[in-house]
Each structure stands twice: as C-alpha cells, then as structure tokens.
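Data deposition worksheet. Section B asks for the primary sequence of the deposited chain exactly as it was used as input, without tags or linkers unless they were present during the calculation. Section C holds the resulting structure in token form. Section D is free text for depositor observations; keep each observation to a single sentence. Incomplete worksheets are returned to the depositor.
Section A, Depositor: J.P.
Section B:
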Amino acid sequence: MLPLQPTPIPAESDAHALSRHELIAHHFLANRPIQSPDLPGLSATDLRNLFHLYDQVCFEGTLSVALATRSAVLAFRLAPRMTTSAGATITRKHRSGKATHRYEIAIASRLLDINFSRTTGPAVSTTPVYSCGLPCPTRLSSLQRTFEHELIHLYEMLSSGKSSCSAKPFQSLARSLFGHLKHTHSLLTPIDTLRQKTGLKPGDPVTFIHEGIPLRGLLSRVTKRATVLVPHSAGRRYSDGKRYVRFLVPVSQLKPV
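Section C:
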C-alpha cells in the first residue's frame, strides 16, 4: 500500500475541488514561458510539472514517495496517435540491474487540437466539451481533467497493482479528490469529425487513388490519416478470415461508396 493517503474533500464541497483545480492551473501557467490556457508548445515537461503540482496539492507527496520506494520510473508523453481515449496510464516491469517498474502517463494531444483552437476555445463544434462529467471551456481545463483521471489510475496501480475506472472504488476516489461526476469524456475524435463532414464511419466501404490507380477498401480507423484495408490475396489475414493490405490515406482523398 501507499505510505500516505491522498487528502479527500467532503462530497458536498465541490467548491473546494474547484479551488484546488484553479490553484494548480494558476501555478502551472505561472511556470510556462507563455502563460495562456491555450497551451502553445505543450510538452512532456509540462506534464511532469503538472504531476508534481497535483502530487503536492492533492496527494501530499504520496505518489512521489511510492515511486521512490519502488525504484520506479514515471514517464510522460504526448500521444498524437491516440484518437479515442483522452489519456492512458500504463505500467510494465523492466530490468536495469534489478527488477523495477516503469509507469507512463500519455495524453492524447490530437484530441486537444481537434476540440480547441489555441486562440478561440472550442474549434470544431459549439457543443460544450465535457470531461469526467465537468465542463472544460479551455484546453488547459480539459488537460487537467484528463490528467486527474490518469492520476487516479496511477494511484490505484501503485496501491494494488491494478486499476479500473469503471469500478466503484475508482469513481469514489475521483469524486472525493476532484469532484468528477463521470469517468468518460465528450471530446470529438478524428472519426467524429470525419462523420460530421462525410457521414463515413469505421467499416464503411471507401475508394481512393493510389499511384494513379483507383482502389476500394474498408475504412478501419482515422488518426491524422485514414487507415483503409484493401482486399488482396497476399495481404495479412484479419479476424473476419479475409486478407487485406493496409493503406494510410489522407482523409481528403476518401470517397464513400
């Protein structure tokens, strides 16, 4: 177990949760070269600074102590290829002379780019952005809510070696620490924006031009580009029993069939 317990807030004291959220936002921005909630130049170093603020204010240093006790490494990463989850916390054992753990918190920077303009707030839709059941009017507020969610995952992993945000203990801790009402987000994803523009969704047949030749396949996923699976006898076998060759196609070149 962790050597300390995080400092919860009473369930009725949502204002206290908000004040800590805003306090961390203030100190976080104060230590950035450009002190804007639009977060230009967001980096992994920013995520590390955010971790130390939350650890001090909300966990009384519990997380840092637990990591040091286990000789564990905690890394941070911006993940532009993550397109459905707003964040992720993973752990794995590695060996460097002795067995240790490595933890990593990744933030889906692509989703922040899609949902927020660096100058005008929400970029794609006028629908308010919610994360963890709470409104996120700025890129920073959305980042914080996602980061808070991932910190609960980290806390549970350090405590018991496992974590599930759909479980009651996770949700209870998220509510008591941060005032979270849900464990999901409403951020628009790349496939959402494609569906808005073209009506396409994963599994739909599409056509595109490759080296001057028209090809037809199935839309698989969308990140910065679309992944299209084109049937071919020499391709890789997929779960449907058929063989496909995978193509990465600019979204603008896709046409529905």
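Section D:
The chain is about 35% helix and 25% strand.
Residues 139-160 form the longest helix (22 residues).
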